[in-house]
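Sequence in, structure out. Go.
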Amino acid sequence: MNAMDALLESLQKTIALKDGRVTVKDEAKLKTRVDGLIYEAVFGDGDAKATARWLIWEIAQALGIRPASIHDLYTAVGRGAIDRPFTVPAMNLRMMAYDSARAVFRAACAMNAGALIFEIARSEMSYTDQRPSEYTSAVLAAAIKEGYRGPVFVQGDHFQVNAKKFAAAPDAEMKAVRDLVKEAIPAGFYNIDIDTSTLVDLNQPTTYEQQRTNFERCAELTRTVRELQPKGVTISVGGEIGEVGGKNSTEEELRAFMDGYLKTLGGQTGISKISIQTGTSHGGVVLPDGTLADVAIDFDVLKRLGEVARKEYGLGGAVQHGASTLPETAFGKFVENGAVEVHLATAFQTLVMDHESVPMSLRDEIRDWLFQNAADERKAKDTDEQFVYKTRKKAIGPFKRAFWNLPESARMSIGMALEARFSFLFDQLGIHDTAPYVAEHVHPAEVHQPKPAGAVKAVKAESVEGLAD
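Output:
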């Protein structure tokens, strides 16, 4: 029995397959089979893995759960067509992506929320061992399991150009990012954040010249996206003017980037949002005892640059990175100050890793692994707790199966904690009852994938210096 036949047998009486198209016959029964299907899509071999991912994609298409671009919603915000403020959460699900996405969808369904993004960064794909096709499969499988309907926004976060590699071999580094774009778009990543802010040169005499390489390379990658986007899809592209963790961005920098970017791009459709620096850093600042230092965001910068982005360039607004480790009182201020999108990651990773349901033996194993395999990343002044906190994300890939294989009771407990966290954030960011806005402005194209033929070749994980929030 081949992989397709074996998986179809496991889904017997739940779906029908004819001429490469899937019809759902019994959704309730199908939901009981999704756990096994996504496990095969993540940990299966060759044909079985490819077939499971294809089936998840096609089942989602049949149910009206379709990867989509948020571009039209953001341009509606930019032209003032949305009658209330909200800030879209973009969530990096590094660990237990399927269970985490299920928690997201449960929280979203409870408050009729539709304006939310699932994302993963270029660097995260490596250390979490999650390529684009796997990540999308986990998100779509979670939507099927939880009975979600509507557009699903999957985003490539920080498709970043490494400054050192670019300086040594610019063509090779640009090709690496283009290759990632070529892999991500067919996987349903219809939202891509291009990060060439690493190439800003503050030694240049004018702001325009400082931003030149940034906007030229961002325009180059935007053209690649437009060439590859599926028929009926205008992929939402984001740009960035200030590397997170650096100096705060200015209106002059925003205008210099946008004017140069639009001129370089010509008449093609450009970005729908712009990421800026307001005082945060990826992952937070870790103190000697392993806790995080308080961070002060300059919300005035966020507000002023967001207004320029909307009024002068028609963008959805400014994007805030590095926010998940902020105090709870900060999140409502993103809405008050017009942030169109906020990126969240580290707090979810911390919640999972530190959850009481994770056996102490597994935590100790991770700790030992870090001291043996990540010692070269330890700074001279780091305490053990600082070192472990800052580097434990590198253990996510090697211990991925261990977390997926936790007892069901542990996974449920972690899922409930995640759901509570997502519910809080969604409330603070004002995305309740945003499903009607999404339905009005976003009309996902029906996109089918070819049935897999032959074994899936393993993709070698790349080493990328870069961080997500």
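Check: The radius of gyration is 21 Å. Confidence is low (pLDDT under 50) at residues 282-287, 455-467.
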